[in-house]
Design goal:
With 490 residues, the chain is mainly β. The chain has a single domain, classed as Neuraminidase (6 Propeller). It has three helices and 32 strands.
Length: 490
């Protein structure tokens, strides 16, 4: 199960070793070690600096043929992880962030009349003490609240700040509600988005693809128990929806389950699920507002694919320059990454991105900031089904030897779940999927569940880096946030 990771370690170590024996002395390397005095209080025990293939960067020479690989944007910055509780339970915690620095998460069944609540957290981004942030339900329907949802979903349009509350009801249909004022008011009546098939495992996104009646085009895709996902588009901000169409090329047998969909600055839409031949994973792209889709096969012939509940979900995200970043779980249950510079037509060699010491991972999610700056989120087992939350970031993913900085958002002794094989199955508040976004300041926010709560089982939490590199602009440190953790749980 570790054969792939082991081979990659040897491949990456080879040029380093040759560089060391080509005249670089151990003394020279030690004198220029960029990790010396990196953090004032030392590197946290739940932070790892490593290269692809779980190579420890602290013990591996960084000088290759007389030149450090840790330069330019590929440099280490002192990083620590933490999390902040929202005070409400969650299920399949999708998230959204507005330009006002408010962050939103769904809370299943805790809204008006048992509806899905939309939990808004404020003052998280600039706080100096955890007492300064607060979270509250902002779903206040104009008329009658929409009944409880089997699969709650929230999405914020990055181009317009419109909040989309997207609910699925007993596999029979879906409703859409919108807010354009940070959740203060909501559309008078929900819009039906049912189409012609049963509904399950929905995902929704927007892009600036030209629309006549709204600044952005919206697309949702669902599992309709058909040979591929079924997708529908809205060109008026979610008021009306087109007839559902296949979310894959003709005669594609990818299956209906799909990863999160996302829109790019160039108007394209992307999502991942099994390839048409069922042999691996592919990214599916639409260049016409979700009406037709093309397949772009990922290099999973190298990594294999995980045989788990989440095996159907490859994840994808475009950066600000429309480069496309993909993530999936390999046959060894470890996370892999590949990028495309040509809208998915070709892909880089896959890299295993987990730090040393993980026995297995699950629930992949990926987000990107500026060009080549990527954040990965996943659950990981450190032994005995002790499941933790991880964020791995790259500030120069296009480097020949990218530095990966990984944080465990929860401390050791504070696991998110102890359920057997949690990362490989539907598990507690995680449900089928989790979510990650990068805010306008370059900080990654990881929506997930703390399944071992105080007064609330399955409490929603935001995992993040309370300090670390920005994923926007140049590689500079983020402002430091206060430590969260169990003290923030309800």
């Amino acid at each position: 199960m570790r054969a792939i990771a082991g081979c990659m370690i040897l491949l990456f170590l080879a040029p380093m070793i040759s560089g060391c024996f080509a005249g670089d002395t151990v003394e020279e390397i030690k004198e220029n070690n960029p990790f010396d005095d990196l953090c004032p209080n030392g590197i946290a025990n739940n932070t790892w600096y490593h290269y692809p293939g779980a190579i420890d960067a602290l013990t591996t020479p960084h000088i290759v043929n007389g030149t450090s690989i840790l330069q330019g944007e590929n440099i280490p910055i002192c990083t620590e992880g933490t999390y902040y509780g929202i005070g409400f339970s969650t299920f399949e915690p999708t998230i959204g962030i507005t330009s006002q620095d408010n962050i939103y998460m769904t809370s299943w069944g805790n809204g008006a009349a048992g509806a899905t609540a939309i939990i808004q957290c404020t003052n998280l981004f600039e706080m100096t003490n955890v007492s300064e942030y607060s979270c509250q339900d902002v779903y206040s329907p104009t008329l009658i609240p929409v009944g409880n949802s089997n699969d709650p979903y929230v999405y914020v349009d990055p181009w317009t700040d419109r909040i989309m509350k997207f609910d699925m009801h007993a596999l029979l249909g879906m409703t859409v509600e919108t807010s354009d004022d940070e959740g203060e008011t909501w559309s008078p009546l929900p819009t039906g988005a049912s189409g012609t098939s049963i509904q399950d495992h929905q995902t929704i996104a927007s892009s600036p693809y030209p629309a006549v009646l709204h600044p952005t085009t919206w697309v949702f895709c669902i599992n309709g128990n058909w040979q591929s996902p079924l997708c529908s588009s809205s060109f008026d901000g979610g008021l009306t929806w087109t007839q559902q169409v296949p979310g894959a090329p003709p005669n594609c047998n990818s299956g209906g389950l799909t990863g999160h969909m996302v829109g790019a600055n160039d108007g394209n839409f992307y999502r991942g699920n099994p390839s048409c031949d069922g042999e691996g994973y592919s990214i599916y792209k639409s260049t016409d507002g979700g009406l037709t889709w093309s397949e772009h096969v990922l290099p999973t012939d190298v990594t294999g694919t995980a045989d788990t509940w989440n095996a159907e979900e490859a994840q994808v995200y475009p950066d600000e320059e429309n480069n496309v970043h993909a993530m999936w779980m390999g046959v060894d249950d470890l996370p892999y990454y590949s990028y495309s510079l040509d809208q998915g037509n070709s892909w880089s060699d896959p890299l295993m991105i987990a730090p040393p010491g993980l026995n297995g991972t699950g629930f992949p999610a990926v987000a990107a900031g500026d060009s080549g700056r990527v954040a990965f989120a996943y659950l990981g087992d450190t032994g005995g089904d002790t499941w933790n939350g991880y964020i791995s970031v790259m500030t120069d993913s296009f480097s020949d030897m990218p530095l990966i900085t990984t944080v465990q958002v929860n401390d050791f002794g504070d696991p998110l779940s102890l359920e057997a094989e949690c990362g490989y199955n539907r598990c507690g508040g995680f449900g089928d999927f989790i979510d990650i976004l990068v805010d306008s300041h370059g900080r990654a926010w990881f929506g997930l569940s703390h399944n071992i709560g105080n007064n609330i089982q399955d409490e929603g939490i935001y995992g993040t880096t309370m300090m670390g590199p920005s994923l926007r602009g140049t590689t500079v440190p983020l402002n430091v946030l206060p430590e969260g953790g169990p003290q923030t749980l309800a």
